[in-house]
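Notes from the 1:1 (GR / supervisor)

We went over the backlog. Supervisor wanted to see one worked example end to end before approving the batch request, so GR pasted a single chain during the call. The sequence is below; no edits were made to it. Supervisor asked that the structure be written out right there so they could see what the output format looks like.
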Amino acid sequence: MTMIFVALMAVSLAFIVWYLVKDIRIGNSARRALSDYYGSRSGERDQTRQEEIGYAVARKMPLSLDAWEAHLRWAQRGGFYLGQSLGFVFFQCLVFAGTGAGLLIVNPAPVSLLVPVMAFAYPLVRVRAKGNTVRKKVVRTLPEAASLIAAELAAGSPPELALSRAATLPGPLSALLRDAMEDARQSGRALFSRKPLKGSLVETMRISGIPALHAFASQLDMVSSKGVAGAELMSEIARALGQEYRARLLSDVEKLDSRLTLTVTFFFFLPFVAILLYAALAPVLQIFTS
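Structure output shown during the call:
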């Protein structure tokens, strides 16, 4: 058993060392410089050894890599995990798990086996939490973007210009709008849908996986096809989105009371009752045990 613990500790230390030297690449300096140059020109780069290990581990796990790639993309739209790949996130999971396994040396209790498992899951939980946070932020900014587009259309701007102005707003929604416009420029596809062809905007929003964004893009397609009447239609859409957001906000406030009640019950009331019961029953238990 002692040998197993020593081996686990050695593995954890090896992972820590590997993590600390992750930026060191061995090879010909000229060849590495050319690889970095052409990789930056093409928008691609070679996977690091850490990413290769992470992807190898991820493929062997019963997880949907597409779903976790989506979580990571959404987190990156919010400014988190920039420059990191899913393979590197899984490599962090290995590092955390190896470090957590070192606890078995200090405390070889069976409950300590949960520490490496929880440490492995921690980076993944953070990625999903950040992705969900950015998703909610995008939905919250829809009324603001719709109001700006409606104001631009009312001032006589074409739909494409109004959308480009909305893409300058701070937040992850503007990043999605810029992606749609960039896709339209590179692929030559129209930004807005024209039957029977789907526009770049509605396709980008559909791929995002958020029904509210897909519906918003479909509404913008309709506005762009209305011509002069599109400004009035866009104003109605912005008004409806604002009302929907306020109704959802009021609903969240009403649910907050029940959530606070549950929190107080589990973290304060139940432990307090348990302490009182233990203080009352401890003398009785001592009588029976003696």
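Supervisor's comment: The chain has two domains: 2-35+46-135, 141-246.
Batch request approved.
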